Amino acid sequence: MHVSLRVTSRYSRKSLLLTPTPIKVRDSFTLTDGASLAVPPQRTAWKLCCVSRTIGAMLLSLPDETLLAVLAHLAPRELFNCRVVCRRLRDLSLHRSLWQAAVVKDKGLLRAALNLAPCLGKISPRLPLETIASFMPSTTCAVANLGITVHNESDAAQATIILLKLSALSGVRSLNLENRCPPGQSLSTLLNATHNVIGLRKLSIQNYSQESLSVAWCDLKTRPSLTKLLYSSNLSEPFLHLLLETHAATLQEMCLFCRNDQVGTLLAQIPNLRSLTCFPSNDLSHLAVLPDLQSIHVMSLSEAYPPGALEFLRGASNLRSVKITNNFSSEPALALAESPSASQIESLTITTILSETLALVVPVLCKFSSLTSLSMNSIEFDCVNFLRAMCWTSLPCLTTLKIPFPREICLHSWLHGPAVQGTLIRNPRLHIRDRTASTTAEDCSCQWCQWGCHELLRESDKPKAYASHSRGPECPADCYRVVLPTGPPSVAN
Ligand SMILES: [Zn+2]
Ligand SMILES: [Zn+2]
Ligand SMILES: [Zn+2]
């Protein structure tokens, strides 16, 4: 007999009524072959126990595969509670699939999980390193995600114990290491252990100490495995250079928040690099040769882009998604408009402080003829002039425009204004999104709010993609038509 089970509840991860105590009850349980059991909240505890036993028996009649799908809705503590119900649940509740994404946040649960579970999704970084390290000698549980914060040499020693053991179990796929510890032998050992984690895919390192992370103790024979690397430091980092050299064959995605590091030459040796977020530096010019580099975010909050960074933007030929954050200059965007990539870029985000800077970019936006998404942002952004100045016919693929709406005017009234209406009518596929948090006041006296159209704009979770069309299959979920066939009488005339 094939039975499928659908569980409906307000409480997505509450107990399944299989636990002896305490009993928590779902709103209803429905077997899709017809049987249904609703549990009104006012029932007495005695009746709930009867219901509990009935549902427990129904669940236990299910095949393993279906029962595992139900158990997947339980939190780790509830899975352990299931183990005391019967022998079958004792075994099923330790099934690998139930623990691969499980997150453990307290000491007692961690001890049980490391002793019994075959694997764990994540150990909460709030748990003390000393506690986690104390469970390491006996565990065979593979942990996929690990977050470690090191304040001193003692922390570094505990973290090394954890990392060596979990690496030996070959389960660690993602590691986040935050260092506040000055250089010392334990920290060096920890860095070596970090460098040697077997099969690590994602590594995030934030160095907040006053000294660079050293490679003095690091084994140079580590096999490449990292696909994603995030590194943040205000110093020049030998450890970053080592990671780039070790994992050059596998790295695909990088976020480098390092001001003083000249890593462009090393980055140019990473053949599969697809996505890069970094500060602009002169040696970015080396990256123009990378064949797979399609997504880049270059951020500069204070300085101008150096010539090498501009040269990269001007010469890159394979970019598809570009974000430029630059406070005072239109130079980066103008350089990008000259690049061989310009006509292929599909997503472009430009953020500056001055609206005058953005105004200088508008005339060259026509070069980005494949854009599907454009986002422009600055303080005191001149929306009306921007929408009027845009050459819409040169951007035939554009479906999303994200700009900061003026905040001094009612959102509803702004959407009905000639600038937005004219733009949407000229571009039937376009959605305009708001980068600010514009609102429609409850008691707004504008003619549109008084007329009463577009009631949804008064909701707190109002739709945010405004269009001239009704929502279609390719539209975002919050697509909302704001162009009407007729307006209020005073406006229509
Ligand atoms: Zn209004
Ligand atoms: Zn309206
Ligand atoms: Zn739409």
Automatic annotation (TrEMBL):
- Enumerate the Pfam families for this protein: F-box-like
The record, for InterPro entries, names: F-box-like_dom_sf (IPR036047), F-box_dom (IPR001810), LRR_dom_sf (IPR032675)
- According to the entry, every stretch annotated as the F-box domain falls at 56-102
The record's section on PROSITE patterns has:
FBOX
The name on file for this protein is Uncharacterized protein LOC117647171 isoform X1
Q: What is the lineage of its organism?
A: Eukaryota, Metazoa, Ecdysozoa, Arthropoda, Hexapoda
